[in-house]
Amino acid sequence: MVDVSFSRSPKPDDDDPATADWEAWFDGQNPPAGRDLRQAIEMLFFAYRDFTSDPDQVLATVGYGRAHHRVLHFVGRNPDITVQDLLKILNITKQSLARVLGAMVRDGYVAQTPGARDRRLRHLSLTESGQALDAACSDPQQKRVARAFRRAGPEAVEGYRRVLSELIDADSRDTILGQIRK
Q1: Which CATH architecture describes the domain 65-181?
Q2: Residue (of 34, 129, 18, 110) closest to 71 by Cα position
Q3: I need a surface site. Which of 67, 91, 141, 144 has the fewest CB within 10 A?
Q4: What angle do CA 30, 2, 11 make, to 5 degrees?
Q5: What is the tens place of the pLDDT at every residue in 145-159?
Q6: DSSP 3-state assignment of 114?
Q7: Hey, where are the domains in the chain?
Q8: How far, in Å, CA of 122 to CA of 114, rounded?
Q9: Phi, psi of 37 (to 5 degrees)
Q10: What is residue 48's three-state secondary structure?
């Protein structure tokens, strides 16, 4: 059982994120306590669980899972993406992608066309059915994020973006952020 208690302790406690001296920590003086980091990681797990719950339900109706959702998302955001570029984004093996993509092409959610210049390249795009499935998955997520942003306020949103940016590996951060911002 996971202990998720956010109540304040009666006396200051360096392990309690509610009372930790964050100013000193950000200035590089006191390292964060293990509990602070564990709670942040657990919050990330629970947020991800709930963030993916709506698409999970939609995808289950057609026999798909989260791997299918990732393909749907990135093909939808990058029409005409090549299989090679999708492999780079997803950072998975050809075999893993072939299984998922094959089902989505067979089921009519993704169209696959050969390249105009190099016929060995396969370009991917969502069909009308794929676009509808993508919207059914992404609309609830967009509403969830918009609601959270509205409640947290602009300063928190900027902090959220900075934290997520820093969680991306440094060697690929600029490339990934450039893809996201296009």
Answers
A1: Orthogonal Bundle (1.10)
A2: 110
A3: 91
A4: 40
A5: 999 999 999 999 999
A6: strand
A7: 65-181
A8: 5
A9: -70, -40
A10: helix
Give tens-digit pLDDT for 5-44: 444 333 444 444 544 555 666 666 666 667 778 888 999 9
Six token digits for residue 51? 């963030």
In the chain, what percentage of residues exceed pLDDT 70?
82
Residues 6+ apart with CB under 8 A from 16: 8, 9, 35, 36
| DSSP-derived 3-state class of residue 28 | coil
Report angle CA 83, 85, 88 to the nearest 5 degrees. Answer: 110
Measured CA distances, 102 to 71, 94, 96, 144, 163 (Å)? 11, 11, 10, 31, 35
Q: What is the pLDDT of residue 20?
A: 53
Contact of 35 with 19, CB cutoff 8 Å: no
Phi, psi of 124 (to 5 degrees): -120, 145
CA nearest to 71, candidates 94, 97, 107 = 97
Exposed/middle/buried for residue 72 (C-beta within 10 Å: 0-12, 13-18, 19+) = buried
